[in-house]
Amino acid sequence: MQVLTKRYPKNCLLTVMDRYSAAVRNMEQVVMIPSLLRDVQLSGHRGSVQEGAPDLYTYFTMLKTICVEVEHGLLPREEWQAKVASGEPSNPENEASEAEEADEERLAGELDLEAQFYRHFSSLHHILTHLTRKAQEVTRKYQEMTGQVL
């Protein structure tokens, strides 16, 4: 398990980012054969498996990709939009959501910057905490599958 070397306040965004990066690095070190994660579902509350939920391999690759972006920065907006557009065919729902996003951006420009910052900061904090837990769950599940449970 990776140990945090930097000391920041508990709820500092840098602490949450470091925890996430450490959890993903630990996951990468433990999961030696990622293909074993294919078609294995992460059990939800009380051991139930959610229908249509992604498999552990999908979580593994998603968590690694997000970690790279957290550590090295985002793609430029145009490249990110092109990547998303190439992965999903255009449909009316996407166009409607894009129109909603444009409306939200217009409204966001009218909001107080401090309020916007707090909303995005708390959302990012929540998302990174959730992703950290997912990385720990993938690691734990892989260890159970391979008999490495401590």
Automatic annotation (TrEMBL):
Keywords assigned by UniProt, alphabetized? Cytoplasm, Nucleus
Residues covered by region (Disordered): 82-105
Leader sequence segment: none
Q: Cellular location of this protein?
A: Cytoplasm; Nucleus
One Pfam family assigned to this protein is Spot_14
The record's annotation in InterPro entries points to: Lipogen_MT_Stabilize_sf, Spot_14
Spell out the Acidic residues composition-biased ranges: 95-104
Family to which the UniProt record says this protein belongs: Belongs to the SPOT14 family.
Protein known as: Thyroid hormone-inducible hepatic protein
